[in-house]
Amino acid sequence: MAKITELLLVPHTHHDIGYTHVPDVCMRMHEQAIYEAMGLCEAALADDSPAAFRWTVEISRPLIAFLRGAASADVARLQALVARGRMAVTAGYLHMTQLIGHEEYVRFFLPLREIRERYGLPVSIVQHGDINGLSWGGVPLMREAGLDCLVMALNPDHGRAPFEQPSVFWWAGPDGSRVLVCLNPHYSTTNNPWELTAGRIEAAIAPLAALVARTQARADYPFDFLVMHAAEDNMLPNGKLGDAVRAWNAAGLHPRLRIVTQAEAVDRIRAHPATPDLPVVRGEWADWWAHGHASSAYELGVARLARAEVRTAEAGQALHRLAGATHAVLAAPGVLPIVNWYRAGNYIPALDNWQARVDGVYDNLLLFEEHTWGTFETVSHPFSLFNRAHWNRKAAFAYDAVSTAHDLAREALAGLATALPPGPEPALMVLNPLGVPRADLVPVRIPGEDREVWVSDLPPLGVKVVPWDAAASAGPLEESVLPADSPAVIENDYYRLEIDPGAAAITRLYDKALAREWVDPAAPGGIGAVVYETTDPADPHPAVQVHRRHFHPDTPGPAFVRTVAGRRGAVTVRRYPYGTTLTVESTAPYLPRIVTTITLFDTMPAIDVTVALDKHENYAMEGVYVLFPFACSGCTYWLETANAVYRADEDQLPDSCRDWYSIQHGAGITDGSANVLWATREAPIVQLGGFHTGEWATRLDPKNGHLYAWLMNNLYFTNFQGAQAGHSAYQFRFTTRPGGLDGGEVRRWGEAFAVRPLARLAPIAPGTYQWLDVQPETVAVQLLKPALDAPGAAVLRLKETAGTPTEATIRWQGPGTVALSRTDFLETAPPQPLPGDGHVFRLPLAAHALATVGVIPGASGPTSQRP
Description:
Elements: E1 6-11, H1 23-43, E2 55-57, H2 61-69, H3 72-83, E3 87-89, H4 102-109, H5 112-118, E4 125-130, H6 138-144, E5 149-154, E6 167-172, E7 178-184, H7 202-216, E8 225-230, H8 240-250, E9 256-259, H9 262-271, E10 280-282, H10 297-323, H11 354-369, H12 385-417, E11 422-432, E12 438-446, E13 449-458, E14 462-467, E15 478-482, E16 488-491, E17 495-499, E18 508-511, E19 516-517, E20 530-535, H13 542-545, E21 560-564, E22 566-576, E23 579-588, E24 591-601, E25 607-615, E26 622-630, E27 636-641, E28 644-647, E29 661-662, E30 666-670, E31 674-680, E32 685-688, E33 705-713, E34 726-738, H14 743-754, E35 758-764, E36 767-770, E37 772-775, E38 779-786, E39 794-800, E40 806-812, E41 818-823, E42 832-833, E43 840-845, E44 850-857
Helix pairs in contact: 1-2, 1-3, 10-11, 10-12, 11-12
């Protein structure tokens, strides 16, 4: 136990990209705040007292906007102030939710290229405020980017911190790397309620004394100082904090106050002799606020589609670079190259800033996935002009991302077509952007009509061209309607599934290989059942009777009323060339029409469940679920997070969220003898082992293998949308297998469903075309993309997913030879050539390692060219 002698105050603004203003105003304001802070810092340069003004730029997005747009003299002013310790910069792009994906996390740190290399600014800290958690896979990304400290000024409202605030500990990543975590009190405490940022000290005396006394009594806090943030939502810099520091110190109050930058505060912690021996914790920091992602389910699905399409676009463009163009294929004979949603991709732009457009997609994705979902009055004044203006801009981030990604993907496919041999008539050209072979339904869009075609033997990172048979893909081969009072039964070589009369979900699922029934008969509904959730208006719980803010860990509950959607009408059975579907309609409160389609494939042991629903608005507390009640006891749940896969509960920080989880796309359930692999496209929020809304549990104790997809809710009192309505659809896929599970299987299953093959009609010769192959399958190809700095080169991002040291084999199967070299994910580290003969290369990977490999065509030996 140490005596607290000093309080270090870190002035900054908390960046809510919205909440108090519409997002665009906030972004311009935060760029202007840097100019304001520089002026205040320069005015105080002659002052070396504890009250001298200092400032920390909390995130990097406004910093990059400033650096790119400022006059060189103003950039020099910032550089000088940072060098003198009067200002500091940090590396986090925005304050992110756990929606951030594997590659978005790389983009999150990409501004470091400019901050360090072009402007020479030192940065080693990631600073976050407000948010209740972060993806575990962020730890190794931080370390690879040269960042060793994470500052979390966590907002415990509507959630819990894993340790008492303040605390300092080491957070170990899945690969064993670790970062120092400074878990500080809420960023606005010194402003509200202490009022120090207003220049007053009276309101701070008692609570600061209590904090000091409590901290001094702790055996786990070895420091003789506290670090507090002096910030507020979208606060512009001002000098009043210095007035409070001068008044406090002049009055002889203790502890003494001192204004510092975040860099100075962290340096004090790094230098302390107790720091190396601080506790080491590992696991996912699951975010309590993640339920809010489902407050705008449609736009969330749009953003996730954009993520998949930009990945496909980058793969297609990279293959085009590597393969080269041999001829012109712009459109099918007789079809003019036209720019529209249906035919985007039957032309190649003559003038095209490809990388800038890709950058724009990722920027929009990060802005959409940023934690500020709405305004301060989303629930209290849901119809206000401010709310509507804000939401139109916030939602536009997702729509802008998907629109650009949509065109980029189709343009990339059109470009790649120029590297393939021409054919006499239009054929279906299908790109597989993943590093694994696959067979799947491929969406084909022609003007006015959407179709799906089954294509088998798609090569990894390659193209398959098959003859186009419009008749075979036009619709079902057979169709029948089963009466509402009769059961519906379909089966294939893998499964037999049944829907009972009156039910609108799979009530029995028999696994022929495992001789096992997979539907829990004790569940409230079968697989694919839709459940509507709301509260009883007579419930005395304060969240119902007083204010929504009482949906809170301090007041568990309220009791929710849940209604399973009831069957409406008959079941339609359709037979397709690839399998059989059952379609059933149902209805529930505020869900007048639900259409559930279940697909059983002839040649693939997997089941697809698609739920399309029409929803009416309800501003009372509500939720919508799709149930997957698998019969499995004593289960372990594996969940895919950004850059990692973890076991729910077992691989989590204390007091991080167990009631619900935000995942990427894959999940797994296993009892050790059999398992379920499950995937989602649009809806990332799940509850495990049953309904847990409002429990605020400290442990996950599932009694079964249930997984519930939580499509929609509106439970928070601010920020998240108050209601949602309209038509939307949600797609899921699962399979069952013998044995246990590992994280690599979960990630592969999720990605294979999330990232669909891309197809277009073009006069290309049928055949299979492949350029790159990566083995073994436990080494996932996270991305194939054009290199940032070397025209004509590409980058492979590889991830070891089995948790064991592995040697990857990378084969070049295109014409000529290539050179491969390893760099960091920022593509700035000196390249390390990989040994190989121009065709086959070996790459040793540590457990859970992420590797970035440059692929440079036309080279016969090692090269030092940066990829």
